[in-house]
Amino acid sequence: MSAVTAPLRRSRETAPDPRRHLHVVDEPVIRHTLAYALVMIAVVGASVFGAVALNALAAGASVEARALDAHVSDAERTYAQLVADVASLEDPARIRETALELGLVPSGPARFITLERNLPADGAVVATERPGATQDPLKPLLSVER
Amino acid sequence: MTGPPRRRRISAPRLRTRTAGDIGVRRIRWLLVIYALIVLTTVGKLVEIQVINADTYADLGVRQRARTIDLPATRGRVYDRDGDVLATSVQAATIYGDPRVFRATSTPDGIAVPPAADATEVGAQLAPLLGMDATEVTERLERDAHFVYLGRQLDHEVGAEISELNLPGVGVLQEPQRVYPSNGLAAQVVGFTGIDGEGLQGLEARYDTVLSGQPGMLVLERAPGGLDIASGVRELVPPEVGTDLVLTIDRDIQHVAERAAMDAMEEHSAVGASVLVMEVATQEVLAMASVPGFDPNTRGDEDRSTWRNRAVTDVFEPGSTQKALTVAAAIEEGLVTSDTVMSVDDGIVVSGKRFTDSSRHETEQWSVSDVMERSSNVGTIQIAQELGPERLEDYLRDFGYGAPTGGAFPGESGGLLASHEDWWGTSLPTIAIGQGVAVTLLQAASSYATIANDGVAVTPQIVRGSVGEDGRLTPAAAPSEHRVISADTAVQVRGMLEMAVAGEAGTGARAMVDGYRVAGKTGTARKPAEGARGYSGEYVATFVGFAPVDDPQIVVAVMLDEPRPQFYGGLVAAPVFSEVMQAALAARRVAPDGVGQGLRQAMAVARQQAEERAQQEGPALEADDVASPPVGSPAGGDGTGVSADEP
């Protein structure tokens, strides 16, 4: 309760100055209300425009990203389908059936021939070599046989 | 007289009435306290929401506006050893309906709300696209449910067409569909998946976790009206594509094996046939054919018995093909050699039961090689008696009998081989000649591959490796190896098996392959009676062999189940072996080791064939004359470079 009575004690000790609320004031500042309002409107407008523009850009980028996603997805789907189609066309049974339809006949038993002499690539020894002969790997073999 | 004034001074403040200012200040202070409490409570709640439970409330908020889309993982492909696709996934359309749209309802106030669309009309529009009866579509749309499938795994184009119709209460979903481009090729090996993409059979089931990958998720922000917020949160957890599987199968050899098996089955009226082609050094399976087969794309219409991979699930008595293993064990133990001569009668009695050869003969002095060439039961039993039950069982198990091979073959059977302690008196002779023991075709092929591989057994393989997202092949774990017989023993057995094909008395003459020396053994075994002891009147015909003999590269095993009227392995199975082996050797580019034609002879044959063709078809252009040697041929016009005395 002492806090409540303090002002009373203070008022009793010092006599109130009947003009204490009066003081000299500066000349009132002229406020350009219209300019201030315009600036604020401009700032607020710019902020709103910026936010909307950023949002629009983000939305545009998002739509583009989504379109690209769809495009990629479609391309992947097409690729997977093409892989399956190619594999189906390569099916040995289908090729055989198509060949028979075209009039081809199954091949006979595989045949092979044997050479008496190996080719140089297989380790054949060079028997003779004419001076100035080129290094054609088949030449030595041909020279011998001739 | 100082008392009263002092009392007044003391009591004056108590009695002094409160002014309006006092009361105002007092109220303001109380209000401040109340305001402070309110602010503190609010701040406390804010701290609780924004700090303490921030994540929880953030999740709640996201959940209210987030829309989560599950992204199914694309299942890995299955390739053959050369990268040809055996199984892959494509995007298919699934059509669904919301029957609530087609039902009349009422509001809580009892006001009737008519259906948003007519099920009959929508059904009539959808039926031709779905390939269904309009009545059935309508019936599904009128069911008491929130969601009904109208069609699953339809072509993408069908889904696009239905989407364009923009029918009320009808939606289109994209989901992967497993397809097998080669239809029934290696169907029992590859297996198939269910409609939801889970592996159900074959390697699809065995490697389901590897192939299936991990599904992903896409989280979008959604406005209250249901529209996606374009600039909102967009969180993508991409699905992990399943790992591709590369098999050891060769598609071309597999096709030949399946065709040969099917032709043989039809020609000999068999109930089934299996052909297995294997690489000797690695025991990689090049082909594993079972007929009758099925098309996994339309498996619902197929007989389920065709789903099983007979080469690994079905066991049979190997018959005479077993004799090579018995003889190999005896040679390895030093009891005989290929040249050991023994007296062989046409019958022998063991434990009161008489065993005979397939044809009557006098008592002959045959070498072990002759015993093999003639496929003598009596001679083989005599050799087995020297070997004894314990050692015979040990060798058979070392060759892979009596247990699964250890490869990744779904549904593989281990065969039947009793412990020698449980053998009866007649078990030794019967098992020695391939009766009383059961093996899979894979085990039979693997045992011969061991002989062909200089006595080293290798675990058979069907999976070559896997291909991850980096596109690189990660090889499968190296197969285990162990030696069963010595290289010298293997060479002796190979020589005997060659005589079984090429020898005058050999039973496998029809297995010969032009240009290659072939070794192998026929087998004909009676099938056990079902539900009773003893044997039925049906047979299993087999042939197992390898080529070329000098440097074996390929093993082929053939089994025909209940062929009629011919049932001998040498008559029905050996020709299949020849056809498949020839194709396999060509496909694997194995050099011939047999005696081929000389160039001169080959040219003469070609000229003769060309002349015959020309006579039949009229004059041919010079450029088309295959018999004309090409200009500038190194061999010249007279076959220079080729010996004159070539065969």
Quick synopsis:
Chain A is mostly helical and 146 residues long. Chain A contains four helices and one strand.
Structure, described:
- With 146 residues, chain A is an all-alpha fold.
- Helices cover 59% and strands 1% of the residues of chain A.
- Chain A has helices spanning 2-13, 33-89, 92-101, 139-145; one strand at 113-114.
- The longest helix of chain A is centred in the middle third of the chain and has 57 residues, at 33-89.
- Chain A is rod-shaped and about 140 Å long.
- The model of chain A is unreliable at 132-146 (pLDDT under 50).
- Mean pLDDT of chain B is 85; it is low at 1-5 and 620-647.
- In chain B, strands 2, 3, 6, 7, 12, 20 and 21 form a 7-stranded mixed beta sheet that branches.
- Chain B is 36% helix and 21% strand.
- The longest helix of chain B is centred in the first third of the chain and has 33 residues, at 20-52.
- Chain B is elongated.
- Chain B has 4 domains: 24-67; 72-243, Penicillin-binding protein 2a (Domain 2) (Alpha-Beta Complex), CATH 3.90.1310.10; 251-297 and 310-587, DD-peptidase/beta-lactamase superfamily (Beta-lactamase, 3-Layer(aba) Sandwich), CATH 3.40.710; 606-647, no CATH class.
- With 647 residues, chain B is α+β, with helices and mostly antiparallel strands.
- Chain A binds chain B through residues 4-5, 55, 58-59, 62-63, 65-66, 77, 80-81, 83-88, 90-93, 96, 109-117, 138, 141-142, 145-146, and chain B through 13, 22, 25-26, 74, 77, 84-86, 88-91, 156, 174, 179, 181-183, 185, 230-231, 234, 251-252, 255, 259, 514-515, 582, 586, 592, 595-599, 601-602, 634, 636, 640-643, 646.
- Strand 1 (113-114) of chain A pairs parallel with strand 26 (597-598) of chain B, so a sheet runs across the interface.
